[in-house]
RNA sequence: GCAUCCUUAGCUCAGUUGGUAGAGCAACUCAUUUACACUGAGAAGGUCGCAGGUUCGAGUCCUGCAGGAUGCACCA
């Protein structure tokens, strides 16, 4: 028996060494598996593309959970003999990365991006991204992720750049990308547009002011933003509101706080007669809903009164004021004029930008959009309909299932997607202008062309991730083999950001779904159920955890009892329990191997297996068992059947728990204990038979457990006489054996 | 406002199609040169949020209510 079993299992001394051995074998790459005769060339493919971590820092426990789940599935499928590809990569995460680096520069050098200039800022961001990328890779490897590094991708590398330009052109040519002057969410702090999904609502106290535009104006209106009223062009009332029907269609002029305004009374069913006075002052340029109502009544969008810096652009006393100051000034003026009729305290949800915390100002801007309600050429359906259909038809299954409802609900509220951003880090919009001329896709030759200054929303490149990583727009062998991917596994918090957009982009570009199954995991919370965050100081660093307890223990703790879509609580105690489990298994191996040697079984088995290949596992019929041993084999068979089905149906939390329970409380507590008298007995035949049984049960146990605890199982497998492959990682999954 | 989820042992959570309530942790009793103290054996602990309904039978299906969480929208 190997001397290593005489000491307790030491993950720290084992895990790094094994990962290097796996990596050097090249067997993370399915092509190598085929070349070495481990996988059949025509085996069924199985693929997962890693959700690319942002190069904004380091991985957290949520990433560790993602890796634990994906690696378990990938290792299982690989052991099933499939051509298994798990493709790694990282995400440039445009706005997130740029704002991290900008903050850093501001803090350390007190400089803004404009002080540095576009080229210098990009250089700084790239340096930061590289450093962050290296840290992330180290973390991925520490967790034991069996990723094929030969195919590593980055959302902003040359291959992905080309794919982004090609998709943009294809969508533009299809008439689904347009440039338009539309009201967008403008973040004055970050100086960029943001998408609807990047808005975070915060509840604040506000005052609802009721007033008239002038003393002879017939209707009072209510607002929490009096400063915007200098931009009003109309007052809308409900068509059935008897108080106001007489005024509908009339127009009035007034001078409001030094600004001349022209107001038309319109009737629109969107207006809630019960709110405020039942009459809404419409400010089309600075409110989404007003813009839409104005559209219906052919009112002007042109009255712009707030600029990109959230300052007033009107003449008179408000000129140049910040909106917040202007609010006070308008209220003061209303009081002076005796126009203010009522003030009441209300709770208000205010829109803030997720990244900068800036208060979002709706502004009309010339931006690029993806249109979701226009039929896709050749498909006879809109992007929105394709989004619904791909899930409704069952082509994509979302786990847990109830998230499908959430998904549908989101799509029903989906508006055109603003894809241009006024930041510098990211994919520059592939559009060139020369006077009235425009070129889309690739840079044109000739003088005088100027490229669009803006960059694309980072989710535009993330949306094509499943196929850009496989070499599209080239029709590569990888693309043919591994797309659509089998599984997309990620946190439920990016269902809309990412998953929906991948479906949209893939349906448009390839006319297929990007993946067949979506597995959504929950948040990893601390032991008290709080979110992990820097400010609370309750973050767990996966590197610290693995250093202390081993990656196997961390992975197992993340998987057992953690159902998809549900948040989980994590604590060091939980992880410690699975470190103990690794040691338990280690000692089972020690006991079994010791007795196999004593009974003279080990060498006999090695003889038997010398010429075995991947495809021929040790079979029950090969070895003599007494009838008293059959029930143990049947019990193990039942476990294999259940665990296999659980993994196939993505019930990893059950599979892992069942294996754990079997190994500790059946194999160790019962079977080993019951075997002691036989192994110490006089009957040599019985002793040998029992030693063989234990060896088979151990062999099967490490195979079953390998997807969840890859290191300790591999380390034991390397010392097993039943070893029939260079690594457990590429050994066969235990099958139910006849006989 | 619209939608979704949750409520099961002291704690954290399972419970796949309806068929005698489960695990881990904690706590309790006992054992102790044992493959393993990173241990073993044992016992204890639950009107499955509340009220109805369907059924031979409901933790599971339906309706209502209460409490908690989340997402989306709106906030003129």
Q: What does this 3D model show about the protein?
A:
This protein has 739 residues and is an alpha/beta fold. 41% of the residues lie in helices and 18% in strands. The protein has 23 helices and 27 strands. The structure holds one RNA strand of 76 nucleotides.
* CATH architecture grouping of the domain at 1-43 and 571-739: Orthogonal Bundle
CA-to-CA gap between the ends? 30 Å
Helix fraction bin: 40-55%
Radius of gyration: 32 Å
What is the averaged pLDDT score?
A: 90
Silhouette: elongated
Query: Reading side by side through the largest sheet, how are the strands ordered?
Result: 6-5-14-18
CATH superfamily of the domain at 1-43 and 571-739: Isoleucyl-tRNA Synthetase, Domain 1
Number of strands: 27
Structural class comes to: alpha/beta
Task: Briefly note the CATH topology name of the domain at 1-43 and 571-739.
Answer: Isoleucyl-tRNA Synthetase, Domain 1
Largest sheet: 4 strands, antiparallel
The count of helical stretches stands at 23
Please write the CATH class name of the domain at 1-43 and 571-739: Mainly Alpha
Low-confidence stretches: 611-618
- Relative strand content: 15-25%
Feature tags:
739 residues; alpha/beta; Isoleucyl-tRNA Synthetase, Domain 1; Isoleucyl-tRNA Synthetase, domain 2; 4-stranded antiparallel β-sheet; 23 helices; elongated
């Amino acid at each position: 028996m190997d001397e290593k079993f005489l000491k307790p299992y030491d993950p720290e001394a084992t895990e790094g060494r094994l990962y290097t051995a796996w990596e050097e074998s090249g067997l993370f790459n399915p092509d190598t598996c085929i070349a070495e005769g481990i996988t059949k060339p025509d085996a069924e493919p199985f693929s997962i593309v890693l959700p690319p971590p942002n190069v904004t820092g380091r991985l957290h426990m949520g990433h560790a959970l993602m890796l634990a789940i994906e690696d378990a599935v990938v290792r299982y499928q690989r052991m099933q003999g499939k051509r298994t590809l798990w493709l790694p990569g990282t995400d440039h995460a445009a706005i997130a990365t740029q704002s991290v680096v900008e903050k850093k520069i501001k803090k350390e050098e007190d400089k803004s991006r404009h002080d540095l200039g576009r080229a210098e800022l990009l250089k700084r961001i790239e340096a930061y991204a590289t450093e962050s990328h290296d840290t992330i890779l180290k973390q991925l490897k520490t967790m034991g992720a069996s990723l094929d590094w030969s195919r590593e991708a980055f959302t902003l590398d040359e291959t992905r750049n080309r794919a982004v330009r090609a998709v943009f052109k294809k969508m533009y040519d299809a008439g689904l990308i347009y440039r338009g002057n539309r009201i967008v969410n403008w973040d004055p702090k970050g100086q960029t547009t943001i998408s609807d999904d990047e808005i975070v609502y915060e509840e604040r106290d506000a005052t609802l002011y009721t007033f008239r535009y002038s003393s002879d104006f017939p209707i009072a209106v209510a607002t929490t933003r009096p400063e915007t009223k200098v931009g009003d062009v109309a007052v809308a009332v409900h068509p059935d509101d008897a108080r106001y029907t007489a005024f509908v269609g009339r127009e009035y002029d007034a001078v409001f706080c030094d600004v001349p305004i022209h107001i038309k009374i319109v009737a629109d069913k969107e207006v809630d007669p019960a709110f405020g006075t039942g009459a809404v002052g419409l400010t089309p340029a600075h409110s989404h809903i007003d813009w839409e109502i104005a559209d219906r009544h052919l009112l002007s969008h042109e009255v712009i009164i707030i600029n990109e810096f959230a300052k007033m652009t009107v003449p008179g006393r408000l000129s140049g004021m910040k909106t917040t100051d202007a609010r006070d000034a308008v209220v003061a003026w209303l009081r002076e004029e005796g126009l203010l009729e009522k003030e009441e305290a209300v709770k208000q949800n205010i829109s803030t930008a997720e990244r900068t915390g800036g208060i979002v100002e709706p502004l009309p801007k010339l931006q690029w959009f993806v249109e979701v309600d226009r039929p896709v050429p050749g498909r006879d359906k809109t992007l929105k309909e394709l989004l619904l259909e791909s899930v409704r038809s069952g082509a994509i299954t979302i786990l847990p299932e109830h998230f499908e409802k959430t998904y549908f609900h989101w799509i029903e509220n989906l508006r055109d997607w603003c894809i241009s951003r006024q930041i510098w880090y990211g994919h520059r919009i592939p559009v060139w202008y020369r006077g009235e001329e425009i070129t889309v896709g690739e840079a044109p030759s000739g003088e005088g062309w100027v490229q669009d200054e803006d960059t694309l929303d980072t989710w535009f490149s993330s949306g094509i991730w499943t196929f850009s990583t496989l070499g599209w727009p080239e029709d590569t062998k990888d693309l043919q083999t591994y797309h659509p991917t089998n599984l997309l596994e990620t946190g439920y918090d990016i269902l809309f950001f990412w998953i929906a957009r991948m479906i949209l982009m893939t349906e448009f570009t390839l006319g297929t779904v990007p993946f067949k199954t979506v597995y959504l995991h929950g948040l990893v919370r601390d032991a008290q159920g709080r979110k992990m965050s820097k400010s609370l100081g309750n973050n767990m660093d996966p590197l610290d955890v693995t250093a202390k307890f081993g990656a196997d223990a961390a992975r197992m703790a993340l998987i057992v009892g953690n159902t998809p879509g549900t948040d989980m609580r994590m604590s060091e105690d939980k992880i410690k329990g699975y470190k103990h489990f690794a040691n338990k298994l280690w000692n089972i191996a020690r006991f079994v191997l010791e007795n196999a040697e004593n009974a003279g079984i080990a060498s006999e088995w090695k003889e038997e297996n010398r010429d075995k290949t991947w495809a021929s596992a040790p079979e029950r019929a090969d070895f003599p068992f007494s009838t008293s041993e059959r029930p143990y084999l049947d019990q193990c068979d039942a476990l294999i059947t259940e665990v296999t089905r659980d993994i196939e149906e993505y019930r990893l939390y059950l599979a892992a728990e069942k294996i754990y329970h079997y190994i500790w409380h059946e194999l160790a507590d019962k079977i080993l204990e019951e075997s002691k008298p036989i192994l110490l007995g006089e009957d040599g035949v019985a002793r040998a038979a029992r030693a063989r049984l234990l060896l088979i049960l151990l062999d099967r146990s490490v195979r079953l457990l390998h997807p969840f605890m890859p290191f300790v199982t591999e380390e034991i497998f390397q010392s097993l006489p039943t070893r029939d492959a260079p690594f457990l990682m590429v050994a066969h999954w235990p099958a139910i054996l006849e006989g």
